[in-house]
Amino acid sequence: MNVAIMQPYFFPYIGYFQLIHAVDTFVVYDDVHFIKKGWIHRNRILIDGNPHPITLPIQKMSQNRLICDHERSQPDEIVEQQLKLLRHAYHKAPQFEHVFPLLERVIRHPERNVGKYLAYSIEKVARYLGISTTFILSSELNAGVGLKGQARILNICEHLRATHYVNAINGMDLYDTEVFEQAGIDLSFIETEPIIYHQESCPFQANLSIIDVMMHCPKQEIQLILERYALVSNRQVT
């Protein structure tokens, strides 16, 4: 069984969904410390040809607490502001009529827990894209408690009886292939090919939220993009 483990992000870029697509089980790593300057609560969309922030308001953000210990702020006016921003940004996009109802359901979802809400949003987008991967919250696994870093990742993989662990390419220096091999688990890193799609912007703005991809590309085109990666080891030169 192929497994990936990653912190939840707010409408992450398409490379995140390539990682989900590459595995059988995706563990939403929600019981690790919140990172204020990361992508847990923010991303970028395209407005008038330029990247523009879209954020997930969160109560009392703290890097001293776990992601799953945070709650989102959900006053009605914040939800409406987010939807208004998306309408303004993409009302002329070719896939707006198909995608906006999905985004509206996700943004209006009443879940307050940040980990569970982000897991819900990621899974809903994945299902829209035709990805059938199983999702699990690490906070509900009761695996690797008290462990950190590679030791915890390995423990979760063993708990799930994984035979192959796949990680994002930027984590290549964090994991030891021999340690995983000793546990009977293959270790790979996902290397995404350059991704360019038709976008109402010049020059092309890369690595925006998956929202931008969905608004501009038919589902069938995105499914082809999801296949544009290679799995490499940290023994290979990339």
Describe the structure.
- The protein is α/β, with parallel strands linked by helices and 238 residues long.
- It is built from 8 helices and 8 strands; from the N terminus they run E-H-E-E-E-H-H-H-E-H-E-H-E-H-H-E.
- The chain has helices at residues 14-21, 76-90, 96-107, 114-128, 149-159, 177-182, 210-216, 219-225, and strands at residues 2-6, 25-28, 42-47, 50-55, 134-137, 164-168, 186-192, 229-232.
- Strands 5-2-1-6-7-8 form a 6-stranded mixed sheet.
- Strand 1 (2-6), helix 1 (14-21) and strand 2 (25-28) form a beta-alpha-beta unit.
- The longest helix is centred in the middle third of the chain and has 15 residues, at 76-90.
- The protein is globular, with a radius of gyration of 18 Å.
- The two termini are 25 Å apart.
Question: What is this structure's SSE topology?
Answer:
Layout: E1 2-6, H1 14-21, E2 25-28, E3 42-47, E4 50-55, H2 76-90, H3 96-107, H4 114-128, E5 134-137, H5 149-159, E6 164-168, H6 177-182, E7 186-192, H7 210-216, H8 219-225, E8 229-232
Parallel strand pairs: 1-2, 1-6, 2-5, 6-7
Antiparallel strand pairs: 3-4, 7-8
Helix pairs in contact: 2-3, 3-7
